[in-house]
Amino acid sequence: MDSGGISDLDLDKYDADEQVKIICLGDSAVGKSKLMERFLMDGYRPQQLSTYALTLYKYTTTINGQTVLVDFWDTAGQERFRSMHPSYYHKAHACVMVFDVQRKITYKNLPNWYKELREYRPEIPCLVVANKIDADIKVTQKSFNFAKKQGLPFYFVSAADGTNVVKVFKDAIQMALSYKKNSSDFMDEVMRELENFELESKEESSDKEETQEGKLDSA
Amino acid sequence: MSIVAKRCGVRFIPPSIILIYENKNTSKTRKRVIPVRNFSQYSDCSRAAERLKHHVRHSVYLESVSLAQLERLHLILRDHLKGLSLEESLAARRASDPSDEDLNKLSDEELNRRKAQMDQLFERNRKHKDDPDFVYDLEVEFPENSVRETCSWDEEPSDEGF
Ligand SMILES: Nc1nc2c(ncn2[C@@H]2O[C@H](COP(=O)(O)OP(=O)(O)O)[C@@H](O)[C@H]2O)c(=O)[nH]1
Ligand SMILES: [Mg+2]
Q1: Which residues of A touch B114 (CB under 8 A)?
Q2: Residue A97's beta-bridge partner residues?
Q3: So what's the ipTM on this one?
Q4: A151, CA 20 to 30 Å: which among A35, A201, A217, B77?
């Protein structure tokens, strides 16, 4: 996967006011795709972007009389590397982070996903979702401290019976919109700078090995 | 020929799958040794299992052996080639607590198989669009009361700074 192909995905379009990008994160088989499908029902057009191992769902809604175009990004297998390609996070406006209440390890992995998310997107809203509560409704009497510790909104949901699924995604869209209105996307600029820097330093180090250290110091 | 597999196992030297089967026509029980060729510690077990399952000469004997079992046997063979003891290999296969099973580590095929198992409960609990009591935006509040019990998953120290 190289970042040279990112333009295929037309990332710049997210700069327009009424378009947002929302990403899903979490371990394999926690139910990310089932949640997406439950929210979108029949009215979606999934787009498989195999080179990026992801599925893109386009969704249109109206909020306060304004049309909002939402791109939901769902992983299609890349989560098993416990890490996503940077383009997945690029210019995302909100994140839905999912674990499976039946499998502890998926909860224990949340900090790893959260850490990676914050490396790329330090500020965007992140919603923590406990899925599959239909399998064991008693879990809803317990508290899961990860979200509280991080100060993140938390939801008990079931993609199977539909509990709170629509609420999660509607909240995510609202939060994505208000994040977009109130942020200057400072981080994207920084990332672009970093990318440039990486290219330059690679070129230099390829022909002048010994001076590399001095150059990095002065940079 | 009608073959019913009775038991299926693995032999390390030379690497082979051993099949005990009954020939229904003759009611005789036999053993078949199927050599596993072109297989190394770097081989893809699910693909090797599939190759064997569809092998021109062996497939008829393996019809009643599941692909999952063939894949598991190849995993044990591969662990052996990597230098693991049989006990270590079996311990690794046996997910002692399914709640601790890391599905991120499975092959596509094994992951799909696990998802197919999960689908049984999913379908049982599923509310369909044409169910009379279907509600698209079903909201349920789970009030945060003070007696809420902390989930035991939070009790271990492996929080890595979070
Ligand atoms: N009981 C139950 N099972 C679920 C639920 N959501 C997903 N599943 C099961 O979990 C499996 C994996 O879901 P999937 O959406 O493919 O997970 P992903 O890998 O995170 O996209 C599915 O095959 C379902 O059988 C749920 O809310 N309740
Ligand atoms: Mg999926």
Answers
A1: 29
A2: A25, A128
A3: 0.74
A4: A35
